[in-house]
Write a structure and sequence with these properties.
alpha/beta, two-stranded antiparallel sheet, 34% helix, 19% strand
């Protein structure tokens, strides 16, 4: 399964890359406007890939639901492999290393961001930003939570009926126990992204990319 993506060029030579994965039933257009909000100076080349699966009730999907927290294994592995191939090729084409990559996503797309950014054997990104999502448990799939971990920004709605806020809290606790720096915000809203938190994450990312430059 080959992925397609919308690409937003950087203003000049890319200083890194920002890749956002959409949620269940959406498509590559859904989070595309967030690229400019998270990176208003266009320092980074941005991309929003389209999930490879077409499933009821419509739109694009990263995996078949196997219960919250536990994606169905076969479709998860197929999408993970396709996303890995696409992401590595995209970065190589742009001349950007994984150490200058910011991965993010909403809902199912957040699962993919966690998996690609923290999966065993995967190169570490410079940062992760995840909205209304969870760290997945899939048979045979393992995370590498050995230090140093990339900093992670997590936003979740306390009124979320789709992926309850407890999943965001669990991710925060797991990552902090492993030694990661976590920026965590809860907002009294449903299964959606808080615009104010997005702007906070934009400032946070600017600082993290600057730290990477100095480091």
């Amino acid at each position: 399964m080959a992925l397609s993506a919308l690409v937003r060029p950087a203003a000049g030579k890319p200083e890194g890359a920002l890749v956002l994965f959409h949620g269940r039933g959406a498509d590559e257009h859904d989070l595309f406007p967030l690229l400019d909000v998270l990176d208003p100076e266009r320092r980074l080349v941005g991309a929003t890939p389209r999930a490879p699966l077409s499933l009821p009730p419509g739109g694009a999907h990263w995996y078949v639901l196997g219960g919250i927290g536990t994606p169905e294994a076969a479709t998860f592995y197929a999408s993970y492999a396709a996303a890995t191939e696409w992401l590595d090729a995209f970065l190589a084409e742009q001349g950007v290393g994984h150490d200058r990559l910011v991965l993010g996503g909403f809902s199912q797309g957040g699962v993919m961001a966690y998996s690609l950014g923290l999966g065993a054997g995967r190169p570490r990104p410079v940062a992760l930003t995840v909205f209304s999502s969870f760290i997945p448990t899939v048979e045979g799939f393992s995370l590498d939570l050995s230090p140093p971990l990339p900093p992670v920004a997590i936003g979740h709605g306390t009124l979320d009926p789709v992926i309850e806020v407890e999943w965001g809290r669990r991710a925060k606790e797991l990552l902090e126990r492993a030694g990661a720096e976590v920026l965590y915000r809860e907002t009294p809203m449903s299964h959606q992204i808080d615009p104010e938190f997005v702007r906070e994450v934009a400032d946070w990312l600017r600082a993290k990319l600057g730290s990477a430059d100095r480091g």
